Amino acid sequence: MGIVKDVLYKVSTKGMLPVFKNQxxxxxxxxxxxxxxxxxxxxxxxxxxxxxxxxxxxxxxNYKALSPEDLLKDNIPKNSFLLSFDDGLxxxxxxxxxxxKARNIKAIFFVNPNFVDNEEGxxxxxxxxxxxxxxxxxxxxxxxxxxxNIFSFTYTSTEDFKQKFIGIKYSEREKVDEVLNFIxxxxxxxxxxxxxxxxxxxxxxxxxxxHYFGGHTMTHPPLLQLSxxxxxAEIIDSIDWxxxxxxxxxxxxxxxxxxxxxxxxxxxxLLEYDGSIRVFGNSGLKKDMDSRIIQRFxxxxxxxxxxxxxxxxxxxxxxxxxxxxxxxxxx
Length: 331
Prior knowledge:
Layout: H1 3-11, E1 24-25, E2 27-29, H2 49-62, E3 64-65, H3 68-72, E4 80-81, E5 84-85, H4 91-103, E6 108-111, H5 123-136, H6 141-150, H7 158-166, H8 175-182, H9 187-194, H10 200-208, E7 212-215, H11 228-246, E8 252-254, H12 264-273, E9 278-281, E10 293-295, E11 297-298, H13 306-323
Parallel strand pairs: 1-4, 2-5, 2-11, 3-4, 5-6, 6-7, 8-9, 9-10
């Protein structure tokens, strides 16, 4: 979170939450589940159902649930919240959808079309599956050496190996298949068995029940590792795919990984592509170059208290105002 955010979280208290209710919040998550899963467990921590239900209670007790429809109409009460979920993992249907349905809350779900229906897998998820397999074999050094040679990096420890493997460039993702073959993982079987991602049928059902879906790029690349034209195609193609497959007439998009350093030119082209588009980043409580660009913050960390996270984000907002970084400057 950074040193300043860590300090502000520590000084935050639950009792301070009512002070910061006069605004709209846009918290986001990726996955909610009660147990570990190989394609996620080596990438980030996540909340279980009980913790997520607690988050819902806190948000509903202090803010009003905002519908995506009202967001698109710019009908946004000051003390409101709108949940969103990135990556299109299957738990948005099997776990999150029933919880939201019971509470009559509508949300936005951002998906990568290439992974819908489980015919392909996100390369970061495949790397996590590989690390889980290596862990089950006690991280045998010959295996680590072979993999590090494939990607041309050196490592000093098991933890260093994991971080460097997870951090490989998007352009090297095809080499992951070589590693899968090397350690005898049939990823097609894994995708068919575990079905990590949502299906078209499930998306259709959720749309018919009032939830909204947006693009998250086609393949979830770190956009700054691509050319400008590749960035634009990844984004717009993911939005168009949803329109073509589900007959929706709105445009929603969230940036994978981070919106930091995304160019002003690219954002201007997205806003021109559809004047009613809403674009979502993850830079916290900040103002962007246009009101159609909405900044979110994560509530996913299971080790952070939700009220303190919200308060901490608000304190950080005022800190950024003081140092002149509340308004995001795009180049």
